[in-house]
Structures are given as C-alpha cells and as structure tokens.
Amino acid sequence: SVRNSAGARGGDEHRPALLEALAGRRPTRTPVWFMRQAGRSLPEYRVLRAQAGASMLDACLRPELAALATVQPVRRHGVDAAVLFSDIMVPLRLAGVEVRIEPGVGPLLDTPVRDAAQVRRLVSRRYGEAERAGTGADGVALDGAAGVAAVEAAARGVVAELGIPERPADSAPGALSPRARAGLAESRGGAGWTPLLGFGGAPFTLVAYLAEGRPSRDHLAARTLMHADPDAWDRLMTWAAHLTGAFMATQVRAGAAAVQLFDSWAGVLPAADYREKVAPYSALALDVAREAVSPTTGRVAPAIHFATRAGHLLPELHRTGADAVGVDQCADLAQAGRQVGDRPVQGNLDPALLGAPWQVLARGVDACLEAGRAAPGHVFNLGHGVPPHTDPDVLTRVVARVHGSQSWERTA
Ligand code: CP3
C-alpha cells in the first residue's frame, strides 16, 4: 500500500524538495544529500585545500575557500542541499578554545576539561569573543568576531551562488541570466534554488571531545563527569548548547534554510541518561538556533537531529523539538518514522555499500527508498559520512538513481 496518496503528493513544485520533505510532504522526487559530501572524496576539494595550505579549522574561516568547497559537491552530484564547509569544532575556536583537527585522527585539545575548576574557566569564554580564532588567507590572525564574520560571509557566498527564491535582487548585475536560472531550475527538478544546510555539533558530542581531549570509543571521561559532578555537567552542557546554537544561528542569519544537529556520539548513552542529562541541552541548542530567521525563506530553519547507533534513543531524539530525525544504517528506517512520532526521517544507506559492485549498491539504494516511504517525509542520506576514499562517480550515480524514482511509488 502507498501511504502518501493524493494530498501529500507533489507538494509545492517551487519549493526545494529538501524543505518539502522536512515539512512532512512528498515532493515529486526524494531529496538527497550526503553527510561529508564536501571533502576528501572530491579531487577538486583536495586541489583547493592543497593550494590554500591551511589547517582544516583555518580553512573553515576563509570565506571564499569555504564557499567553494561547499558548492563543489552540489555542482558535481546535483544533490538537493549544500552543507556548509565548516566543522562542529569551529564555534569552540570562536570562543577561544585551543582545538585543532589532526588529519586521519580528528579533534584534539591540549587541555581536556574534566573537573569543576576547568569547567568554570571554560564557561567564561563566549562565542565570538576569542582573542585569536585562527589565521586568515593573508596570514593575519583573526579574532573571534572576525571568525564569526568569516562564517557568515562563507554562508552568504554559498547562497548567492546557489540561488535564492525569485526577488528583485536577482536581476542585479552579475546575477544569473534568466536562461541560466531556468537551466539550473531544470537540473534541480523545478525548484529554482538549492538550499544551504547549516549545522552544529550537539552539546554531548562537543563535550565528549572537550572531556576526552581526543576521539574516543566509549566517551568515558564525559560520561564520568555527568555522574560525578551534576552541577559542573549542567554548566558545561548549558554552555555548549548556547555555543552550538549561536553557531547555527549565525548560519541561518546568513541564509541557511535548514540546520542539522549532529549528535555523533549520543549512541553510547543509556536511554535514561540521554533523556535526563543530554536531551534537554540539545533542545536548548535548537531553541537558540530558532532565534534566527533565514533571509532566504523568511522563516526559522527546520532542524534535522542526527545521531549514530541511536536506535534505542529514537523516541527521545524527536522530543528535543527537531522537525526530522536522521538515523544511521543500524536503525530500521521503515520503523524509525513511527518511533519518532510520524515525523520525517533522514538516512540511512550504509556507507560501506559505496564500495560494493553497482548491482549491490543499487539494491541498497532501492531498499532505502522503499523503507523511507513508510515515513511522512524522507530525506535520502548515508547512515554516516562519506568515506574519504569513495569514488565520487559512485555518489553521482546514487543521486541519479534516487532522483529517478518517484517518491510516492513503489519500485518494482
Ligand atoms: O560535507 C560536509 O559534511 C562538510 C561539513 C562538515 C565537516 N565536518 C567538514 C570536515 C561537517 C558537517 C562536519 C561535522 C563533524 N566534524 C562531525 C559530526 C559528523 C560526524 O562525522 O559524526 C564531527 C564528529 C567532526 C569532527 C571531525 N572533523 C572529525 C572526526 C574529522 C575527521 C578527521 C580525519 O581526518 O579523519 C574532521 C575533519 C573534517 N571535517 C574534514 C571535513 C571535510 C576532513 C578534513 C580534510 O581532510 O580535509
């Protein structure tokens, strides 16, 4: 049987498919984007980074580089969303926390935050008030305010490049000609613009890195602090929620039309701990993000809440006030929609399939589309980020297959 008949079918042809799906409607074709679609799988990205010669976090604060890296996968694959080239660690830098990203390893801090005194020192730091947040393209040091301005400029550059809804500014010199715009609209399945997705790390995932100082399997340092010192935990998580919420709000004010909150490590938590000690702060982060209105849509940004290995947390994830829930390949996508209270779902093709023969991958894509039809809206994605060695042509082929299947029909 087909759930989404008549009314929900098609949606508004002129609104991007991503926004239609996040509103619980079924656009003509299922929207698709990939976590980590910008990055090492693209040769043009590797060229860009090598030319810049900047560290990952410095690269995020160079608006032209960041805007280009954001647009690259949209141009190449025809995905339905651009995701800002940045990192969940960027707002920590903008607040003056010494963090760097070690290639092949992940985020590293020299001084982990593990006790009440360290928490007290940390929470006195404010978003955008770092004395030194990074190094600009000219080699000159950027402070926190300049860093925030750089994130804004990057997002605005992407929006200018990927189109905004029809309005007078579109006929300004340098804007797309009507013919170019029509061509782009055609390639986007009718919608004249591609939305920019902003994002932030959920408080728990940020605190997991802060407490451990490096990537970890069980996040024991963070989980110990949670139980050992509830007051310090509350102060730290509240601070992280405001920080990441402000970072998302920056992106929305600069034109991001939707946001994703990444709780990459929430899956290690027992459900009761997640509910009582983590979910309220994720909800706070989303509230802070909703203080911003997107100039692109005139609305607050709908939010996708993503976590890995979080099958046991699905009902909790949607209660944080997210519009849609993103799941990894371990969750049953067909059941996820029901478990999150009939909200739209995002996911969940196993990234491992990207290296399998095409027939195997194609079957996986079709099964994912089929499972997504059980929810009121489906955004096709991987269960986690694009692996660095993925053949980019395979990703382009996946996008074409998703777009080639109508969102409300069963595949044979
Ligand atoms: O396309 C996109 O998704 C681009 C934006 C983006 C990046 N990081 C760019 C990036 C996003 C949304 C993130 C989120 C992020 N960063 C998360 C949450 C998502 C997840 O994967 O669970 C986390 C945990 C981080 C922290 C982080 N940053 C890690 C673990 C790494 C990998 C380190 C490595 O080399 O293995 C990074 C680096 C990073 N962030 C890269 C990119 C494109 C790779 C940098 C490069 O090699 O050029």
UniProtKB/TrEMBL annotation:
Gene3D superfamilies noted in UniProt: 3.20.20.210
Pfam families: URO-D (PF01208)
UniProt EC number: 4.1.1.37
Gene Ontology terms, MF aspect: uroporphyrinogen decarboxylase activity
Domain of life of the source: Bacteria
Listed GO biological process terms: protoporphyrinogen IX biosynthetic process
Gene Ontology cellular component list: cytosol
Residue ranges of domain Uroporphyrinogen decarboxylase (URO-D) in the record: 31-40, 197-213
Family: Belongs to the uroporphyrinogen decarboxylase family.
Protein name stated in the entry: uroporphyrinogen decarboxylase
Provenance organism: Actinomyces glycerinitolerans
